[in-house]
Amino acid sequence: MRQNNEVTETSRSETVSRTQWQLIWRQFTKHRLALIGLVVLAVLYFIGVLFPEFFAPHSPNERFESYLPPQRIRFFDADGNFHLRPFVYGWQEELDMATWRTIYTPDETEIYPIQFFVQGTPYRLWGTFESGLRFMGVEEGGRLCLWGTDNLGRDVFSRTIYAMRISLTIGLVGVGISLLLGLTIGGISGLVGGAVDNAIQRFIEVIMSIPTIPLWMALAAAVPRQWSALQVYFAITIILSFVGWTGLARVVRSKFISLREMDFVMAAQGYNASQTTIISQHLVPNFLSYVFVNLTLAIPDMILAETALSFLGLGLRPPVVSLGVLLSRAQDLRTVSMHPWLLIPGAVVVIVVLAFNFVGDGLRDAADPYQLS
Predict the structure, then answer these.
(1) 290 burial class (0-12, 13-18, 19+ CB within 10 angstroms)?
(2) Number of domains in the chain
(3) Pick from 91, 115, 144: which residue ends a domain?
(4) What is the pLDDT of residues 30-84, one digit of tens each?
(5) Which residues, in sequence order, are bridge partners of residue 75?
(6) CA 289, CA 24: separation in Å to the nearest integer?
(7) Residue 318, preceding bond cis, omega within 30 degrees?
(8) What is the pLDDT of residues 124-167, one digit of tens each?
């Protein structure tokens, strides 16, 4: 009995000695789906945002035959022989006389081993460092198109990797702006109150009453056509941020109103603590779980918004490569029915959204002040 009490006291002392962020991380690591989602996001951001040029087998505009089917990575050839190094077959063309379509079938006489850390099409890493080293590829004369090609013969797999840089960063930048606006405007509304609070709330209600998609379309249509791809990118980010901060601002206002009369806030005011200290150390930590959930849900929302705008032709436009731009090639039902691999970038969007939702659930539970023990 005494030993159990000593173990309990030891665990309590360890808990007390931990910081709030250490307690949040300890709770977060107990959520398996959240950890899986975090790993998936880390891999996608590492490959698609930091080093897409290195991991993509081809440049985004390198062309092969149009509508090549996805290639299958193999270890056994047609004779049943095992190959230690994975390989892909070449393609042989055949014209379907009934539909006048070119049909591609694997050519089992052409074997192209997949090689790693090979020299490919030159590129500029981050627009600065010149290199031609790529993570994988095949020898000259072969084609490595794991997810097939589009109507212009461009590798869908490589273009999807390049597209993640735009689509994933637009969510981070947009959410950063929305978080700043939501916390600032909502905090002012909740702390000041009175006429300022009424004016801010009426302004928020006006924005929230406007249908989202028509508002996106109207703002995106106002972007001049002669703008460069970089200017359009920042314009779309600002547009998405402009309509994404209202929900967070209203929650921050309500939380501030409910917490500003609490005993610990009154005590901090009695010790002449500054407003910045009260907000950062007493108010915000008490609804940190909601902020985490809002962030992890807002990022996929903005990714989906950019995808929808680009799909409708109102967002980013070629030659910019984003997931929405790639999916815009799959608008024709007849094209999708014959070449379904054009929808693969949509699966990437689904994976990203699910991963963010899992991480959000884990952070919500971990940041709950009643569970930090």
Answers:
(1) middle
(2) 2
(3) 144
(4) 888 989 999 999 999 999 999 999 999 999 888 888 888 999 999 988 888 898 8
(5) none
(6) 10
(7) no
(8) 888 788 888 999 988 877 888 899 998 888 999 999 999 998 88
How far is the C-alpha of 196 from the C-alpha of 119, rounded, in Å? 61
Q: Strand, helix or coil at 130?
A: strand
Give me the domain span that covers residue 184. 37-49+159-366
pLDDT at 160: 93
Query: Is the same domain home to 129 and 45?
Result: no
User: To the nearest 10°, the Cα dihedral for 313, 314, 318, 321?
Assistant: -100
Cβ atoms of 205 and 321 within 8 Å: the answer is no
Claim to verify: residue 115 and residue 253 sit in the same structural domain: no
Tell whether 299 and 194 lie within a shared domain: yes
pTM of the predicted structure, to 2 decimals: 0.79
Let me know if residue 30 belongs to a domain. no
Is pLDDT above 70 for 274? yes
Statement to judge: residues 133 and 249 lie in one domain: no
Token pair 């097939």 in the structure block, residue: 148
Structural domain includes residue 16: no
Domain shared by 169 and 243, yes or no: yes
Which of helix, strand or coil describes residue 269? helix
Mean pLDDT of the chain: 81
Is 287 domain-assigned?
yes
Taking the CA of residue 355 as centre, how many other CA atoms within 13 Å lie in the half-sphere pointing to its CB? 20
- Distance between CA atoms of residues 338 and 357, nearest Å: 33
Mark whether 174 and 319 lie in a shared domain. yes
Return the percent helix, strand and coil in the chain, to nearest 5.
60, 15, 25
- Given 144, 176, 193, the domain boundary residue is 144
Residues 197 and 118 reside in one and the same domain: no
| pLDDT band with cut points at 50, 70 and 90 for residue 370 | low
Alpha carbon distance, N-terminus to C-terminus of the chain: 22
Helix or strand holding residue 328 (H, E): helix 323-328
User: Residues 198, 117: one domain?
Assistant: no
Q: Is 369 exposed, middle or buried (0-12, 13-18, 19+ CB in 10 A)?
A: middle
What one-character DSSP code corresponds to residue 50?
I
362 in any annotated domain? yes
